[in-house]
What we know:
This protein has a single domain, classed as TIM Barrel (Alpha-Beta Barrel), CATH 3.20.20.70. Helix content is 47%, strand content 16%. It has helices spanning 13-23, 34-40, 43-51, 65-78, 91-108, 126-131, 138-151, 164-171, 198-204, 213-216, 221-233, and strands at residues 4-7, 29-33, 54-61, 82-86, 114-118, 156-158, 176-179, 208-211. An 8-stranded parallel beta barrel has the order 1-2-3-4-5-6-7-8, surrounded by 6 helices. The longest helix has 18 residues, at 91-108. The protein is globular, with a radius of gyration of 17 Å.
Amino acid sequence: xxxxxxxxxxxxxxxxxxxxxxxxxxxxxxxxxxxxxxxxxxxxxxxxxxxxxxxxxxxxxxxxxxxxxxxxxxxxxxxxxxxxxxxxxxxxxxxxxxxxxxxxxxxxxxxxxxxxxxxxxxxxxxxxxxxxxxxxxxxxxxxxxxxxxxxxxxxxxxxxxxxxxxxxxxxxxxxxxxxxxxxxxxxxxxxxxxxxxxxxxxxxxxxxxxxxxxxxxxxxxxxxxxxxxxxxxx
Length: 234
């Protein structure tokens, strides 16, 4: 099920491999985030290549434009399916990242990865933005950043289900939306504030949904993944 991305939120390669073996081919796209990548580095990508799965590299690049451009070039060389960066790094940073990906992909004769912008984390609410002296509410801030990402040439954004429809209206049907904060009705919300069920997110227009703990912490992860997919398709 290509719309479902499962987060490999673990510390070591053996655990990551066990998760993949339990879920593939029911799940074909997996997310490698800072937890796994910080512990094992590019070895996580070698595992992905061995298993022939698609990887969403979720490292949320945010630095000066030249540094993020070089990191984006490295992500392209790793052969990831998609990766992300923080939109709040600025327009110039995003433009340079997109240019670096195109240049590296052409040079290496590989398919360019999708470049996604992180708008506002799903753990953040209106009060958190006020604490940062951001006067817009979450929905306004997310849609503003999504339009900025599109103008900079990004393929899409990471955004909660609450913002899918206004992003679609502003950015069009070809703009990719990856939605985290997915919590099936049978799962706990944990530290997420802006959540949705798998079915709600897909019906609102998400291209991909990211699920972690509800599947990883289940007694039978494969059965939990199948339950999510069934909910999407119902």
